[in-house]
Amino acid sequence: AGPLLEVEGLSKTFTIRRGFPVARTATVRALDGVSFRVGRAEALGIVGESGCGKSTTARVALRLTPADGGAVRFDEQDVLGASAGAMRALRRRMQIVFQDPASALDPRQRIGASLGEPLRVHGIARGAALRARVADLLGEVGLPASAAGRFPHEFSGGQRQRIGIARALALGPDLIFADEPVSALDVSVQAQILRLLESLRQARNLAFVFISHDLGVVRHFCQRVTVMYLGRVVESGPVGPLFEEPLHPYTQLLKVSSPVPDPERPVAMTLQEGEPPSPLSPPAGCHFHPRCPHAFDRCRAEAPPLREAAPGRAVACHLYAQA
Ligand code: SF4
Ligand code: MG
Q1: Number of helical H runs and strand E runs in the chain
Q2: Tens digits of per-residue pLDDT, 196-219?
Q3: The complex's ipTM?
Q4: Which ligand gives the minimal distance to the CA of 294?
Q5: Phi and psi torsions of 256, nearest 5°
Q6: Counting atoms of ligand 1 from 1, which one is nearest the CA of 287?
Q7: Does the beta carbon of 299 sit less than 6 angstroms from any atom of ligand 1?
Q8: Does ligand 1 lie within 6 Å of residue 295's CB atom?
Q9: 306: CA distance to ligand 1 center in Å?
Q10: pLDDT, tens digit, for every residue of 176-199?
């Protein structure tokens, strides 16, 4: 079988109003030809600084935000062109976990009702069978069945994220987009949630698109990585080789800016060099050229395409133009 998820040439432009007292519109090219693949039961990391398009990629691939162009195929089915009925079936198989689990939980609703809602809406279970499914889901994420009768505010951040994960699991998905799922949690709690996600990946044959700015977390959790910079993929490959010997100058900078990754103590990435990038007015040519120590004339004029650099590895950089 082919890959579970194939994203090809995804593009998305937002128009925003900015400025006071005279408002003007500006165009943000959030995604510019983003392509990647996710295998069955594989965890693909998407890394990059804030504003690089990581979250937009997830939202557009899930059709929570319309795409301008490109293609998304899930299990060989066209997602962006799917009918409402086909999309309903696809939604059962593709779910999302957010950084802030509170955003996915109604504060006035008991946990049992929140977890039961997708099961009810999709006509999967009701009554005693539904309550039993909810108890199973809670057990699977390490919470007692009694949690069903309580409200979101009665739980810690880590417990709320477990509830968010249980909700994403309710419909038995094959793929979960996890958008910075541990970034808001204490380091010790991060490690617990990552262990839970890893055990779920194995037990349920779940695939993940794991979005993070944190190299340590991605290195620990993912098998392959896609690195994004200002709406474009700049490098992708298996996690070990990619971090041991990064090809793209941006990935190299990410690596030296991030302390030695320790799975028990994930650390936030910091980039000490250069200006933080803005998706509002990205530089011409290679978007990375103002921060790149290897930039040359061609980089300022021409955007480098993503090319295969070694088996399973791709890089978008003029330094690798000659085969
Ligand atoms: Fe640096 Fe040029 Fe490669 Fe961009 S294309 S990363 S500016 S060397
Ligand atoms: Mg984000």
Answers
A1: 10, 12
A2: 999 999 999 999 999 998 888 999
A3: 0.97
A4: 1
A5: -70, -20
A6: 4
A7: yes
A8: yes
A9: 12
A10: 999 999 999 999 999 999 999 999
Beta strands (DSSP E) in the chain are 5-18, 24-38, 43-47, 69-74, 77-78, 94-97, 175-179, 207-212, 224-229, 232-238, 307-310, 313-315
Residue 206, C-beta contacts closer than 8 angstroms, at least 6 positions apart: 41, 173, 174, 175, 176, 200
- Contact of 318 with 304, CB cutoff 8 Å: yes
Tell me the best of 229, 319, 320 to mutate to test the pocket of ligand 1, counting ligand atoms within 8 Å of each CB and taking the most: 319
pLDDT at 262: 45
Is the confidence at residue 113, as pLDDT, over 90?
Answer: yes
Predicted model pTM: 0.92
**DSSP state letters, 249-275:** HHHHHHHHHSPPP-TTS-------SSP
Nearest atom in ligand 1 to the alpha carbon of residue 320 is: 3
If you measure from the C-alpha of residue 249 to the centroid of ligand 1, how many angstroms do you get, rounded to a whole number?
7
| Dihedrals phi, psi of 270, to nearest 5 degrees | -130, 140
DSSP 147: G
CB distance 70 to ligand 1 below 6 Å = no
The pLDDT tens digits of the residues spanning 278-314 come to: 788 889 999 999 999 999 999 999 999 999 999 999 9
Rounded Cα distance, 308 and 75, in Å? 24
